[in-house]
């Protein structure tokens, strides 16, 4: 009796996107990301160099694969690998012409391929075979022209095929074509033979767009409505004397949206058609109306027009406008509100053809040599980016952030010469102002290597109970300053050796407010507390004869835990070995406990400190690790005398430079690779947010506001995190089915028809029966 082995092809894995097709960037290239507030526009690289990446069309098949039609043939992409179909002289069923202009999946799961010079092909994915249809000059039942530009399906038996030499109706039951051509002096014939786009609306009406953006005479073309009873066409043209006519005769895009609007994209712009009246409403920009609908980016009388239209799954109409200098502008219309926003103006992107894949990404085929495929996808809903204008003098970097009310934020920065600045802006980041504070005199622009190493700007901003802002200047030795945002006066507080109720030092590295409204200062070699209502300072110093005093260290960061203790992080002085420094100060007694670090940890500093819901204290040691003091050790009372700190998850976070916990105790970090990391300390799981490339997060630049929103400062602005948005969990941790795409038997790839094992492609099978000797 022959033994059989049954393999069930339903495997569940934790994957980044829950699709049958896992749409990831190929391993052969890292995407280059162009930044946008709400959407990412990435390059997507195919193999085979410039020709392979000259992609004219993209479709997604019924089994989830992406198919690319390029100048060098057909590519199938399974989310990880490419399979290339090209001409094989020894195989008459192979693709006999490499330059592909259009791809279309018919309802019976055949892929129809329009080539630019080789005619029409039907591809059967079950056996990877091609059937060829092409022009025969002596046979009027063949294609009118082998330069195929568009394919669309009327029914399972009827396809319409556009070419540069007329329109064709293919009867698939007979394999014969019926031609529709422009006939001179016949106004009911096709307006122009160069067919570039086809569309069948919900009523079954066929619309034909003719004319080509790169033809010599741009007046030729026109829009055509096919009348099936008479097999004639109704033509629509541009009329310069009629504002309800088309804006141009070169027609490239149609779309009937989910609200019943019929959109036409042409040379000149976008119009909405009244199909009953045969008139067009030109969608022109009214500068007095915010959010009105138009084709974006048009400048003067340039040659420009709408090249592609599509509606995404969220009822947004995307408008892709191509300009004569081979750049494009992209607009998005919310069809529920009829409000438009511009996604990009005059970007180095060509939208020759666009489509949306099942994961929600929008793909743009760039066509000609040197053009590129791009993918547009939303940024993660849990992270929003608020870019700010960077000035000619080096711009600014956020050193502090507080909220006043529900919408107004105040930030702190420093000019290149160390002068403090206050930034006022709304939460959207789009309306903001900056106020320099030259009244705050900096005493010393200390630019030593040691201070640059510590990046000792005055980090932190406090808004006290009276609405007064407090900040410091860090290594420029400007002490402490305060101001009411709406008042002109600025107060500066400097160390006075004859007045103990003044700042202990002028080099103040970090500010933090405690639960009682006191302002804590991490000075260079001391820590101070200020009661801002009574203007009373309390100072805490290192005493070499008192082990319960502060360490001999440079202090860089502060944190108040839930018990009210103040944790102070920094780096031991050179005399003490340059080890990391971490102290816990009891504000009631003024006593300090010091965390023990082994002598082999040198030239590192504690950058940030936080606490999870379990009471564990986490702190970030530069270039080393994320460390933890577990709550049970802290409660044991001897944690300051022994090695109780542990490296959390090994060396996973040795590149991190910011750490903060949200209101649910989940840890958030940034690292020098430009990633934002969400860390569940209980589950020891990490979710990376790295949908923006090229971000540079500066250490000790993490801020949490009263509403729970977390902000990280990067080189162009702020990254805002909404910890309550669970999009990240759905995006990164949902279960997904995996589709197998290739099968090897005894080391050889097996396809249908070559072995009895497969009666259809392996990616269509849920179960596979193998004999005992086939089980390798």
Q: What's the short version?
A:
The protein has 776 residues and is mainly β.
Descriptive overview:
The protein starts with a strand and ends in a 5-residue tail after the last strand. The protein is 3% helix and 43% strand. It is elongated and about 105 Å long. A hairpin with a 5-residue loop joins strand 17 and strand 18. It has 776 residues and is mostly beta strands.
Per-chain topology:
Blueprint: E1 4-8, E2 12-14, E3 33-34, E4 39-44, H1 49-52, E5 55-60, E6 66-70, E7 73-77, E8 82-85, E9 100-105, E10 111-115, E11 119-124, E12 129-133, E13 148-155, E14 158-163, E15 166-171, E16 176-180, E17 195-200, E18 206-210, E19 222-227, E20 232-236, E21 251-256, E22 262-266, E23 269-274, E24 279-283, E25 304-311, E26 316-323, E27 328-334, E28 339-347, E29 353-356, E30 362-365, E31 373-378, E32 383-387, E33 400-404, E34 408-414, E35 420-426, E36 432-436, H2 449-454, E37 462-463, E38 469-472, E39 480-483, E40 490-493, E41 508-513, E42 519-523, E43 526-531, E44 536-541, E45 553-560, E46 566-572, E47 580-585, E48 592-594, E49 606-611, E50 617-621, E51 625-629, H3 631-636, E52 646-647, E53 656-661, E54 667-671, E55 676-680, E56 685-689, E57 697-704, E58 710-714, E59 717-721, H4 727-733, E60 735-737, E61 743-745, E62 748-750, E63 767-771
Antiparallel strand pairs: 1-63, 2-60, 3-4, 4-31, 5-6, 6-7, 7-8, 9-10, 10-11, 11-12, 13-14, 14-15, 15-16, 17-18, 18-19, 19-20, 21-22, 22-23, 23-24, 25-26, 26-27, 27-28, 29-30, 30-31, 32-59, 33-34, 34-35, 35-36, 37-38, 38-39, 39-40, 41-42, 42-43, 43-44, 45-46, 46-47, 47-48, 49-50, 50-51, 51-52, ...
């Amino acid at each position: 009796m022959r033994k059989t082995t049954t393999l069930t092809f339903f495997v569940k894995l934790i994957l980044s996107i829950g699709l049958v097709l896992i749409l990831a960037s190929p391993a052969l290239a890292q995407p280059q990301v162009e930044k946008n507030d709400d959407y990412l526009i990435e390059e997507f690289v195919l193999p085979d160099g410039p020709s392979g990446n000259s992609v004219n069309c993209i479709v997604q098949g019924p089994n989830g694969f992406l198919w690319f039609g390029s100048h060098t043939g057909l590519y199938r992409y399974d989310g990880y690998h490419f399979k290339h179909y090209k001409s094989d002289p020894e195989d008459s069923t192979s693709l006999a012409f490499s330059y592909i202009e259009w791809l279309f999946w018919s309802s019976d799961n055949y892929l129809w391929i329009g080539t630019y010079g080789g005619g029409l092909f039907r591809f059967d994915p079950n056996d990877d075979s091609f059937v060829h249809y092409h022009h025969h000059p002596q046979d009027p039942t063949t294609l009118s022209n082998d330069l195929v530009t568009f394919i669309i399906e009327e029914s399972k038996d009827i396809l319409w095929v556009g070419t540069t030499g007329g329109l064709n109706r293919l009867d698939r039951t007979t394999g014969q074509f019926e031609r529709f051509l422009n006939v001179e002096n016949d106004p009911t014939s096709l307006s122009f033979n160069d067919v570039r786009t086809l569309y069948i609306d919900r009523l079954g009406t066929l619309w034909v767009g003719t004319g080509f953006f790169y033809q010599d005479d741009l007046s030729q073309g026109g829009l055509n409505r096919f009348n099936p009873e008479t097999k004639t066409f109704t033509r629509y043209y541009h009329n310069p004397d009629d504002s309800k006519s088309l804006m141009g005769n070169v027609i490239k895009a149609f779309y009937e949206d989910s609200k019943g609007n019929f959109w036409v994209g042409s040379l000149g712009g976008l119009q909405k058609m009244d199909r009953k009246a045969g008139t067009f409403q030109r969608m022109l920009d009214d500068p007095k109306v915010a959010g009105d609908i138009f084709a974006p980016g048009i400048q003067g009388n340039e040659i420009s027009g709408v090249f592609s239209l599509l509606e995404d799954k969220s009822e947004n109409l995307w408008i892709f406008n191509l300009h004569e200098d081979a750049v494009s502008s992209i607009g998005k219309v919310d069809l529920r509100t009829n409000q438009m926003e511009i996604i990009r103006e005059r970007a180095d992107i060509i939208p020759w053809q666009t489509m949306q894949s099942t994961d929600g990404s929008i793909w743009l085929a760039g066509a000609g040599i040197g053009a590129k495929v791009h993918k547009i996808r939303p940024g993660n809903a849990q992270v929003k980016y608020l870019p700010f204008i960077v000035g000619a003098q080096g711009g600014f970097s956020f050193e502090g952030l507080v909220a006043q009310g529900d919408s107004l934020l105040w930030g702190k920065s420093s000019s290149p010469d160390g002068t403090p600045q206050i930034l006022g802006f709304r939460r959207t980041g789009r309306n903001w102002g900056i106020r320099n504070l030259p009244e705050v005199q900096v005493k010393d622009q200390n630019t030593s290597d040691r201070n640059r190493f510590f990046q000792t700007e005055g980090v932190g901003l406090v808004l006290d109970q009276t609405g007064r802002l407090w900040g410091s200047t860090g290594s420029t030795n400007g002490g402490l300053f305060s101001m009411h945002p709406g008042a002109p006066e600025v107060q500066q507080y400097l160390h006075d050796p004859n007045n103990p109720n003044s700042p202990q030092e002028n080099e103040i590295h970090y500010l933090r407010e405690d639960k009682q409204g006191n302002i804590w200062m991490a000075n260079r070699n001391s820590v101070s507390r200020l009661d801002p209502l009574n203007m009373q300072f309390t100072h805490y110093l290192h005493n070499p004869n008192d082990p319960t005093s502060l360490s001999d260290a440079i202090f860089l960061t502060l944190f108040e835990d839930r018990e009210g203790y103040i944790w102070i992080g920094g780096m031991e002085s050179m005399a003490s070995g340059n080890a990391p420094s971490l102290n816990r100060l009891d504000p009631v007694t003024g006593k300090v406990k010091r965390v023990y670090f082994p002598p082999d940890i040198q030239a590192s500093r504690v950058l940030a400190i936080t606490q999870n819901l379990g009471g564990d204290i986490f702190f970030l040691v530069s270039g080393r690790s994320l460390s933890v003091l577990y709550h049970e050790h802290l409660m044991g009372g001897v944690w300051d005398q022994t090695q109780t700190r542990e490296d959390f998850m090994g060396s996973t976070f040795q590149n991190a430079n910011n750490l903060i916990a949200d209101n649910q105790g989940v840890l958030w970090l940034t690292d020098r690779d430009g990633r934002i990391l969400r860390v569940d300390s209980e589950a020891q799981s990490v979710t990376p947010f790295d949908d923006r490339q090229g971000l540079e997060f500066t250490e000790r630049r993490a801020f949490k506001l009263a509403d729970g929103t977390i902000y990280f400062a990067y080189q162009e602005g702020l990254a805002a995190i909404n910890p309550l948005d669970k999009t990240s969990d759905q995006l990164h941790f949902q279960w997904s089915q995996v589709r197998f795409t290739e099968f090897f038997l005894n080391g050889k790839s097996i396809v249908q028809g070559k072995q009895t094992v497969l009666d259809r492609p392996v990616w269509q099978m849920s179960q596979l029966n193998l004999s005992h000797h086939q089980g390798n």
